[in-house]
Amino acid sequence: xxxxxxxxxxxxxxxxxxxxxxxxxxxxxxxxxxxxxxxxxxxxxxxxxxxxxxxxxxxxxxxxxxxxxxxx
Length: 72
Fold this sequence. Notes:
Blueprint: E1 13-15, H1 16-23, H2 27-35, E2 42-44, E3 47-51, H3 52-68
Antiparallel strand pairs: 1-3, 2-3
């Protein structure tokens, strides 16, 4: 039996607490990744939002780094 495939995010934009849950990362790690340019965000008024495509790109980046033996 194989593990169920992860489904792509269904919404276009996610708030930071939602991204924290989706990626199982703390708030400080999320903001660290944003500052490092590894997780892309957009602004809508005062809200910082993460596009679904940016979440997918971040996971892809982590997978590439794992395959290459890169950093965490």
